[in-house]
Design brief:
Number of helices: 1
Number of strands: 36
Shape: globular
CATH superfamily: YVTN repeat-like/Quinoprotein amine dehydrogenase
Structural class: mainly beta
Strand order of the largest sheet: 2-36-35-34
Strand content: 35-45%
Low-confidence stretches: 1-46, 283-289
CATH architecture: 7 Propeller
CATH class: Mainly Beta
Helix content: under 10%
Mean pLDDT: 88
């Protein structure tokens, strides 16, 4: 099924242009150039990825799939390291529900659902929060967070749940705490700039990042400010933002400037700062240093994917860069066992070794609707490792399944809408939120 034209045009425009801030059941050529000179593909970056032949005999071994009961924050848990999740069923549709307003001319749907207990929570582009029973797909309650009844669209925001409270960030600069069972507002705090990323909650603290690259640490119980940290100001960036990652008493925050700061959670003291700014500004897209993919902290190492063709592994304690590869993406890495999976800006799914960042295999995905003319770029989201398959979504209304061991395509399924938010998994069920605000459960 082909996506609706106005949605695809809007999504591609937002994802690939510069913004100015301040506001089992699966279905198992070259054209003639008349002008003289070199033709340059402005949508492809300067990354050159090749399989490392030195590890061609290395078997990809993964931990056994584990059933996770919840998906409480964007990226799963505060450290964003979910490894190998259980989802062994044929992935047939269980139910679907319209959660509100999806992507339209004024806003793009960016917020990943979260799950706690028997409830999945969503927020749409008009700041409408909905609680849904995960077994039946029935709506339990809904709350409008917006300040203005005439609001036409809110860009950004997200959800996190912890200790019975649901935290929501908004594009109108508010963070709100709700009672998770009822939707009753507990507290609300207005900050100095819009919030594009989901909050991260850890040990009674809520961490949120504003569009002007400032991190706020707030008390989860009442929203009072505990401390702040300011990154470098950057006016150019991609749509959306990455939530901070937290582990071992350290919060790692990515900024749109390409900076990554590691801070002590109790007082905001800086542990280290790294930068993934563009080394070679070969085109307008690569020149954007925004870190759009969420960082992952796993076994004392931070894995960061930057837009500007730089992916790095950094020691959490010391800030020492352990390795770096010339790979850029707008999605975060997925770590499982001794391997890492990255979806690049050039529509490549890459398997790297956790130690050394060596490329084990590359799977090239379609880049354009019209490959011959290189028109109508296809956007991809993910990956998510569940049930011995890597799940990725795309803008042409599909979910693809690929082998995590060799990268071959295992199957695909049609979805009623573009899938630009990665799927989430809980209790062996895969949940997909489309760009048109349809939430679908598969098992």
């Amino acid at each position: 099924m082909m996506p609706r034209p106005h949605i695809v045009r809007f999504v591609i425009f937002l994802a690939l242009t510069i913004l100015v801030s301040g506001c089992g059941g699966w279905l198992g050529g070259t054209t003639e150039i008349r002008l003289e000179g070199e033709r340059i593909d402005i949508l492809r970056g300067s990354s050159i990825i090749e399989v490392d032949t030195r590890i061609s005999d290395l078997d990809v071994l993964l931990p056994r799939p584990v059933v996770n009961e919840n998906w409480p924050q964007a990226g799963g848990y505060p450290n964003h390291a979910m490894h190998h999740l259980a989802a062994s069923g044929p992935l047939t549709k269980l139910w679907s529900i319209d959660i509100g307003k999806g992507t339209h001319d004024e806003a793009q749907l960016l917020a990943e659902p979260v799950i706690s207990g028997n409830i999945i929570y969503t927020v749409d582009t008009q700041a409408e929060v909905v609680a849904i029973d995960i077994n039946s797909g029935n709506r339990l309650w809904q709350v409008d967070l917006s300040k203005d009844d005439k609001n036409e669209g809110i860009l950004g925001g997200g959800l996190a749940i912890d200790d019975g409270r649901l935290f929501a960030t908004t594009g109108f600069a508010d963070i709100i705490a709700l009672e998770a069972k009822t939707g009753r507002e507990i507290w609300r705090r207005s900050l100095n700039a819009p919030l594009r990323a989901a909050p991260t909650v850890w040990a009674g603290r809520v961490f949120v990042v504003t569009t002007n690259n400032e991190l706020f640490a707030l008390a989860a119980v009442d929203g009072r400010e505990l401390w702040t940290h300011a990154g470098l100001t950057e006016v150019a960036g991609l749509v959306g933002a990455a939530p901070p990652a937290v582990d071992a008493g350290v919060v790692v925050v990515p900024y749109s400037s390409g900076e990554v700061a590691a801070l002590r959670v109790e007082n905001g003291r800086q542990v280290w700062v790294e930068s993934l700014t563009a080394l070679q500004r070969s085109d307008a897209v690569t020149a954007i240093s925004h870190i759009r993919g969420r960082p992952v902290i796993d076994r004392g190492i931070v894995y960061i994917v930057g837009n500007s063709n730089r992916t790095a592994a950094v020691d959490l304690r010391t800030g020492t860069r352990l390795w770096e590869v010339r790979i850029g993406g707008r999605n975060g890495a997925w770590v499982a066992g001794d391997f890492i999976y990255v979806l690049t800006r050039d529509a490549e799914l890459v398997c790297l070794t956790r130690r050394g960042g060596r490329v084990r295999w590359i799977s090239q995905l379609p880049r354009f609707e019209d490959e011959k003319e290189q028109e109508d770029p296809i956007l991809w989201s993910g990956p998510v490792l569940a049930g011995d398959r890597l799940l990725i979504g795309n803008s042409r209304e599909e979910i693809w399944s690929l082998s995590p061991y060799h990268g071959e395509v295992l199957g695909r399924i049609d979805i009623l809408g573009p899938v630009l938010i990665p799927p989430i998994v809980a209790r062996e069920t895969v949940y997909v939120l489309t760009d048109e605000a349809d939430l679908i459960a598969y098992r």
